[in-house]
């Protein structure tokens, strides 16, 4: 087995997450980063998309989950992790970081972020 880490970096979305009513109406920019550890041995030899984790599917899952409102970033990243692990049950580890850009905190702040890591490796 040849472990590799696949990363989808700086995916940008406009969404409506937050505890304040205004956040759920006006919305905000969100940046999502995902890292996935999986066996890439077959894909590295065959050069066939059928043997690789489909990045487009990971993006589409993320887009779907971020389009559904959450009050908390913790809830959002949990949903993203669960949906990706459900679709790709063969991945060994996943890390999802979601950042709310310019959050309404009463002062200047670039972003607030929540990161969730999950070890999904099964005894083989």
From TrEMBL:
Keywords: Folate biosynthesis, Lyase. It catalyses: 7,8-dihydroneopterin = 6-hydroxymethyl-7,8-dihydropterin + glycolaldehyde. One of its GO terms (cellular component) is cytoplasm. It comes from Plebeiibacterium marinum. Belongs to the DHNA family. SMART domains: FolB. NCBIfam families: folB, folB_dom. Catalyzes the conversion of 7,8-dihydroneopterin to 6-hydroxymethyl-7,8-dihydropterin. The keyword Cell wall biogenesis/degradation does not apply. Gene3D superfamilies: 3.30.1130.10. Pathway: Cofactor biosynthesis; tetrahydrofolate biosynthesis; 2-amino-4-hydroxy-6-hydroxymethyl-7,8-dihydropteridine diphosphate from 7,8-dihydroneopterin triphosphate: step 3/4. This is 7,8-dihydroneopterin aldolase. Its EC number is 4.1.2.25. One of its GO terms (biological process) is tetrahydrofolate biosynthetic process. Pfam families: FolB. One of its GO terms (molecular function) is dihydroneopterin aldolase activity. Residues 6-118 form the Dihydroneopterin aldolase/epimerase domain.
């Amino acid at each position: 087995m040849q472990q590799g880490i696949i990363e989808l970096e700086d995916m940008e979305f406009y969404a409506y997450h937050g505890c304040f009513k205004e956040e759920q109406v006006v919305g905000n920019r969100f940046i999502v980063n995902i890292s996935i550890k999986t066996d890439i041995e077959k894909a590295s030899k065959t050069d066939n998309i059928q043997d690789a984790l489909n990045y487009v599917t990971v993006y589409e899952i993320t887009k779907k989950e971020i389009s559904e409102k959450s009050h908390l970033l913790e809830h959002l990243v949990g949903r993203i992790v669960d949906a990706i692990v459900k679709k790709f049950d063969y991945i060994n580890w996943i890390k999802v970081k979601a950042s709310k850009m310019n959050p309404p905190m009463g002062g200047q702040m670039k972003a607030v972020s929540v990161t969730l890591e999950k070890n999904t490796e099964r005894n083989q």
